[in-house]
Each structure stands twice: as C-alpha cells, then as structure tokens.
C-alpha cells in the first residue's frame, strides 16, 4: 500500500480512518481506567496533529479531560474548532508550557514515502513520514517529554509499515518505557497504540 | 480561544510566557477571537486568527504547500 491508495478526494484535511478510531477508543478507555476521583482537577490532554478533530472530540465527549487540539494545518484547526474544540495552530509541542499535560495523543504521519513521490500539499503532510516513516515521529519523541507532567503519558499510534520496534527503541533513547495497549490487524498493516511513560 | 489557555501557551522560540494584547472578544464576551499573543521575553507577536491562536514560529507562519 502506498500513499496514492490512501489518498482520498479530500485534499486539505485528513479524515478519520481506522487508525483514528483505534487511537480514540484506546485513549478514552485508558483515561477512564486511570481517572482518579480524588483528583480535584480533570486531566489536561493535548492532541497533536488533530486533523479533523475526531480523536480529540471523542476524548472530550467520553472522558472528564479538558482537551486541547493542535495542528500545523490551518484548514485542520479551523475544522477542529468548528467541532467545538479548543484549538491551537502549532508545530508539534513547541508552544506549550513545561509539564502542562497529563496525556499527549498523536496519530502521526507515518507512511514511508519515496521522496520522488511526494505531493507537497496538506494531505501529503498528513500522511507522509518521509523515507523511513519516522520523519515526524522522531522530533515528536525528542520534544514531548518537556510538556508532560511528571506522571504524564503519551498515546502514539504506530503502524507496522513504520516499524513498532524502531519507534519503541527511539522512545527508549528519550527516556520512555513503552507498552502496546491496543493493536488491530488489517490486510496491509497492523496498527498499534503505544503508551509511553517514564 | 479561552483566555485560560494562556496558562499553558508559551513562545515557541524561547518558551517564555505570552501576554494578550489588542484582544477582541466574541459575542459571548468571553472567547478571544482576535488580537496578538506577545512574548514577554523576545517580543515576538503571534496572531489570534478567527479565535485560533497561531503559535507557529515566524519562519513557518507563511508556509503553505502548493
């Protein structure tokens, strides 16, 4: 499966697919399991690369968390805001305070892409993870630790096309332990949700 | 954006706090729909466009794929 198979008529904002549903369902389940009623404040959750806002909206509706949705793409943040979400146009986690979030969610662009085969539009930015599929995942892993609260966790969607072991190893270099908390197989890939914690 | 979002937003360049200037409020009088978020350290200004703060660093702000 390559990028052209995944490319829809939609050209500006990635619309929810199996990966979005798996990340949303898993995150809601984990947040609700860990919801400690003695906590005075509801958890603060950031979704990076929210796209249509589907995952952020489900977490907003199905958990007690306050959810912030961010994206690089101006069309995406507009769509997410129309969903009633608090939105920020941002490059990954760069404009957020240290230790701000109890959880950070990311369904990253992860399809390995031949450089000669790129479209240079917003949909390509939403899907392509560069030649190894990790062009966006790696800088995310380098920086996400800064904005996580001491007990904060990351929920990261990873495809077998990108390589779960490679992502776990990279996360380890940044001081994270990883647990696969959900996975689902499809004809061309297996999707895994990694929970990263310190 | 809600004004309370300022508590967790920082300048993407130097991570210092931001101050809201020239704020325009929506019909409910609470949501910030326009204005600038200004870095208290470096003075860089980040616009609030249609209620959405644009916290991209200046060199990425104009970037638009073809």
TrEMBL record, chain A:
Alphabetical list of Pfam families matching this protein: Methyltransf_25
UniProt GO BP: methylation
Keyword tags: Methyltransferase, S-adenosyl-L-methionine, Transferase
Entry's Gene Ontology molecular function annotations: nucleic acid binding; protein methyltransferase activity; S-adenosylmethionine-dependent methyltransferase activity
Domain Methyltransferase residues, every copy: 45-120
GO cellular component annotations of the record: eRF1 methyltransferase complex
Gene3D superfamilies: Vaccinia Virus protein VP39
InterPro entries: DNA_methylase_N6_adenine_CS, Euk-Arch_PrmC-MTase, Methyltransf_25, PrmC-related, SAM-dependent_MTases_sf
SUPFAM superfamilies: S-adenosyl-L-methionine-dependent methyltransferases
Family the UniProt entry places it in: Belongs to the eukaryotic/archaeal PrmC-related family.
Name recorded for this polypeptide: Release factor glutamine methyltransferase
Organism listed in the record: Halopiger aswanensis
UniProtKB/TrEMBL annotation, chain B:
Leader peptide range in chain numbering: none
Superkingdom classification of source: Archaea
InterPro entries: Trm112-like
SUPFAM superfamilies cross-referenced by the UniProt entry: Trm112p-like
Any matching Pfam family: Trm112p
Protein name per UniProt: Trm112p-like protein
């Amino acid at each position: 499966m390559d990028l052209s198979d995944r490319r829809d008529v939609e050209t500006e904002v990635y619309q929810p697919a199996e990966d979005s549903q798996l990340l949303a369902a898993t995150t809601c389940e984990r947040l609700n399991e860990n919801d400690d009623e003695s906590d005075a404040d509801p958890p603060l959750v950031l979704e990076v690369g929210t796209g249509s806002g589907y995952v952020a909206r489900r977490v907003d509706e199905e958990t007690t968390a306050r959810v912030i949705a961010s994206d690089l793409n101006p069309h995406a943040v507009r769509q997410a805001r129309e969903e009633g979400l608090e939105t920020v146009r941002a490059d990954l986690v760069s404009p957020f305070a240290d230790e701000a979030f109890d959880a950070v969610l990311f369904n990253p662009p992860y399809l390995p892409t031949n450089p000669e085969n790129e479209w240079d539009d917003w949909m390509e930015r939403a899907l392509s993870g560069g030649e190894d599929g990790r062009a966006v995942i790696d800088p995310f892993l380098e920086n996400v630790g800064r904005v996580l609260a001491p007990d904060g966790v990351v929920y990261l969607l990873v495809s077998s096309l990108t390589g779960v072991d490679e992502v776990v190893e990279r996360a380890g270099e940044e001081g994270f332990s990883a647990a696969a908390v959900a996975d689902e197989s499809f004809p061309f890939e297996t999707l895994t949700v990694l929970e990263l914690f310190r | 954006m809600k004004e309370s979002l300022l508590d967790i937003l920082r300048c993407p360049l130097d991570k210092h706090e931001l101050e809201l200037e020239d704020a325009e409020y929506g019909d409910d009088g609470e949501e910030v729909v326009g204005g600038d978020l200004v870095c208290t350290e470096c003075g860089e200004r980040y616009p609030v466009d249609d209620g959405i703060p644009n916290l991209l660093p200046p060199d990425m702000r104009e970037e638009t794929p073809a």
